[in-house]
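[audit] Reproducing an earlier prediction to check determinism. Same input, same settings, fresh worker. If the tokens differ from the archived copy the diff job will pick it up downstream; this log only records the rerun itself.
[audit] input (113 residues):
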Amino acid sequence: MNKSHVQKLALALPETSEEPHFDRTSFRVHGKIFATMIPTEDFLNIMVGDAVREPALNMYSNCAEPLFWGKKVSGLRVNLLKATPTIVAELLEQAWCGKAPRALVKQFRDRTE
């Protein structure tokens, strides 16, 4: 799994943009960040809540770990050298759904079902 593949997966989600965020690149929907990565590292930070994070940590313990923001867990840190494209796509979509407006999520789900 490489960074350009992550970029393609993230930007394929509706109304997603890629913007700088300090020393990182961020993927956003309607201005809300759902993932970030440092171009020189092999990790992707995915912003998901507890309902997604905890099952993902159990299912993907070989490539995902909690993402800490200070003492608070704010998502997942995914090792791109160990994660499959399917895992990354699934987690990006879940993070996107958590940040996108409800109407946009409904439109997306209606198209993909």
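[audit] rerun output stored. Observation attached for the diff report: The longest strand covers residues 72-79.
[audit] end
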